[in-house]
Amino acid sequence: MPPAYRRILLKLSGEALMGDKGFGIDAAVATQVATDVAEVQRQGVEVAIVIGGGNIFRGLAASARGMDRATADYMGMLATVINALALQDAIEHQGIVTRVVTAIEMRAVAEPFIRRRAIRHLEKGRVVILAAGTGNPYFTTDTAAALRAMEIKADVILKATKVDGVYTADPVIHPEATRYDRISYLQVLERGLQVMDSTAISLCMDNRLPIVVFNLRTPGNLRRVVLGEAVGTVVSG
Fold this sequence. Notes:
Blueprint: E1 7-12, H1 14-18, H2 27-41, E2 46-51, H3 59-64, H4 69-92, E3 98-102, E4 111-112, H5 115-123, E5 127-131, H6 141-151, E6 156-161, E7 166-167, E8 179-180, E9 182-184, H7 185-190, H8 198-206, E10 211-215, H9 221-226, E11 233-236
Parallel strand pairs: 1-2, 1-6, 2-5, 3-4, 3-5, 6-10, 9-11
Antiparallel strand pairs: 7-8, 10-11
Helix pairs in contact: 2-4, 6-8
């Protein structure tokens, strides 16, 4: 069965990497993510990954406690680079060549983001991990994912979460909440659903880029999404 997408952008939160630890990086979770990524990459799918840093440092939380917002956001961007290097190591243990590309220059550990070079890496079958967000404060890694997906001409954003799609309310707090199979960008914005932040959703809506929200914790889910199976929730026009 051929993949439904040729080039994907996988959006991972930093929290996804910490598993049940509460802080930092859980090696077992990083290995599971790497195994899933390697599986779809071997099927000929080009994979880019945008990763958050919330397992190490949350800029928004720090600014709420009185830290300068721009400073806090830069610290959050550096946290995403730590995660990207950990994920690179885990993916390369699966035998897949990986490049970490950052929006803030730090040549000793990663390449600077140059759009054409990033696309070339993908064409050569390398996994590209995009770190440091957009390189600008006040923008989340969700917005970075939407922006980079447009730049590399991804077919879809795969938003990996702890739940199996988009619900009418938080299913952890409201067990009676129901899951959407499909929902429009406008409905997400109007209903204030926590899929991605409003800037990211608007960017995807303007450029007609679909988003698939799915549960990363179920092994093999990434492959099922890539093959076009009905997993999670599709956000589209």
